[in-house]
Amino acid sequence: MSETGALDSLLHEDRRFPPPEPFRRDALISDPAIYDEAAADPEAWWARWAAELDWYEPWHTVLEWTPPHAKWFVGGKLNVCHNCIDRHLEGPRRNKAALIWEGEPGDTRVMTYYGLHRRVAKFAHVLRNLGVEKGDRVAIYLPMVPEAAIAMLACARIGAVHSVVFGGFSPDSLADRIVDAGAKVLITADGGYRRGTLIPLKNNADRAMEHTPSIEHCIVVARTPSTARELDVRMSAGRDLWYHDLMRDIEGGVPCEPMDSEDNLFILYTSGTTGRPKGVVHTTGGYLTQCQATTRWVFDLKEDDRYWCTADVGWITGHSYIVYGPLANGATVFMYEGAPDWPNRGRFWHLCEKYGITVFYTAPTAIRAFMRWGEEWPAKYDLSQLRLLGTVGEPINPEAWMWYHEVIGEKRCPIVDTWWQTETGAIMITPLPGVTETKPGTATRPFPGIEAQIRSEAGEEVKAGYLAVTKPWPSMLRTIWGDDERFRETYWSKWPDTYFPGDGARTDDDGYFWILGRVDDVLNVAGHRIGTMEVESALVDDHRVAEAAVVGKKHDVKGQSIAAFVTLKEGHEPSTDTADELKQHVVEKIGAIARPELILFTVDLPKTRSGKIMRRLLQDIAEGRAVGDTTTLADPEVVRRLQQRYEEG
Ligand code: WT7
């Protein structure tokens, strides 16, 4: 089906799901008047949320907006770690489980708020002893173990800026991010488990550190048993230190550093339209305010919930909805290290039963995989504790939504489809589960206090066009690390003083937002954001490749997969081996998430007369559609030959 065809059927979606009555009755928010209340004075509204945090010094101005730069809660001082941990120690949460963790092999750990506090305060002391000061950058390259959260919170405690790098990224990708941020310390592990095998993180880190002169120390968490010597971990004397040695030898913790509301909290790299990932900068007061607000209301979070967000802490979802949002609310967070299909396809549902998960937040790509694996897996387990389900990362197709609703939610649980981005820091468009009537496939309405529109290129409000955020919001990115020009250019140059997220969207008769996906050269593969240029750079990095063009190809489970059109230099012949080697080369340069599924060799690429590669056209070919308009093409013959090749297989 063509894109517009699929869209039309989406917009004719007439199944409606009001909040189930028992849910609505107990929900934190069930009165729609909240939207008008927030819209009447968004600044006052956010200030009320900010006041729910502990501040050392109050702010004097809620918002200073000199587009495109916003400052929230100006003059206020607070500490994120204090708000996520220390302040909960006073009352009954002291002995409440903050983190419940299960490793892929089945090992488990539980940390109370007291226990988490002790570890974080000690580790903050360790970092400080190693010379990490307020404002210094610390890179974190860890598997999904509690130490990932501990390291992030320890940085926040002393005012160091963390830069978490997803453990699936290659040594090159890690090195690029460390160099760009100028990180002083790298925190990693010997390895991590994924589908029964060990990912050699320290070995990767060693390869990265060959190119990172800023790194003074590398702290290594011993995740794997000492018998796992196949990893062959080497410790470089003076530079590399074991986490457990440092923690054993340190005496006591350090207090929280009072931070300015606008001090940097973290940098997180994400893909854009150029070959180089950009370091999205988030700050302290506004970020935590919106994380706390959205976690509480979108997930209807109550004191006795068992909350599980299946993301990795290496992505923004893990930052905002595993660590900062839930802990700021004093919640019990469940964290799992491994794959959903290990040792079998029932692992997630087994975990839901075993830990009595009540709120579950995952990605549409995972839901589509579960659908494919069959209802028999969830049917084996007791999912009756679940009361609310969420999704994030890409548009959810109505079939997947319905399956989630019926099979996992047993028709009892509202679904919150949450739209947001690394750059927005926290949820922006979402149902409120006790208020909003949902429809499969739409993220519905902006969260109270957020203002969004659908606009044309010219900036008029339209029914179908580009998504736009028309007012600054507390958890917005403040800049791109080291490149404010790129920040202005990427997000603020389309319309005056308005944020452009890079997504297309439509609205329906209820005024709901239907997010249609990226309108730039950014792919969404299994919920992971990948820039076409990044993959192209990795391909042309191979000595045989003359030119490469990468497009997204529709994929039943992943949403999109990567298709690459490659021209080889003279003297090199296309072959299956070459294709496999090129795929492997991309994995080594970027990481397994960027592996092209299809490589198509071609003698030429379709270009406009001005020399721009026509990606749309290539996408048409990759997805087997009739080729669209080629009138601006320099050599229409190129397309015909390409298409023929593709059809030949
Ligand atoms: C892009 C942001 C935010 C955490 C995960 C991804 C797409 C995200 C939805 C949704 C439709 C969505 C957008 C967005 N996206 N959530 N509920 N419906 N699309 O963060 O890597 O920064 O990617 O993911 O295209 O721009 P990210």
Automatic annotation (TrEMBL):
PANTHER family: ACETYL-COENZYME A SYNTHETASE, ACETYL-COENZYME A SYNTHETASE 1. Residues 534-612 form the AMP-binding enzyme C-terminal domain. PROSITE patterns: AMP_BINDING (PS00455). Catalyzes the conversion of acetate into acetyl-CoA (AcCoA), an essential intermediate at the junction of anabolic and catabolic pathways. AcsA undergoes a two-step reaction. In the first half reaction, AcsA combines acetate with ATP to form acetyl-adenylate (AcAMP) intermediate. In the second half reaction, it can then transfer the acetyl group from AcAMP to the sulfhydryl group of CoA, forming the product AcCoA. It holds the Pfam family ACAS_N. Residues 10-24 have a biased composition (Basic and acidic residues). It comes from Gaopeijia maritima. Its cofactor is Mg(2+). InterPro entries: Ac_CoA_lig, ACAS_N, AMP-bd_C, AMP-bd_C_sf, AMP-binding_CS, AMP-dep_synth/lig_dom, ANL_N_sf. Residues 33-84 form the Acetyl-coenzyme A synthetase N-terminal domain. Residues 1-24 are annotated as: Disordered. Acetylated. Deacetylation by the SIR2-homolog deacetylase activates the enzyme. CDD domains: ACS. This is Acetyl-coenzyme A synthetase. Belongs to the ATP-dependent AMP-binding enzyme family. Gene3D superfamilies: 3.30.300.30, N-terminal domain of ligase-like. CoA binds at R194, R195, G196, T197, T317. It is an enzyme of class 6 (ligase).
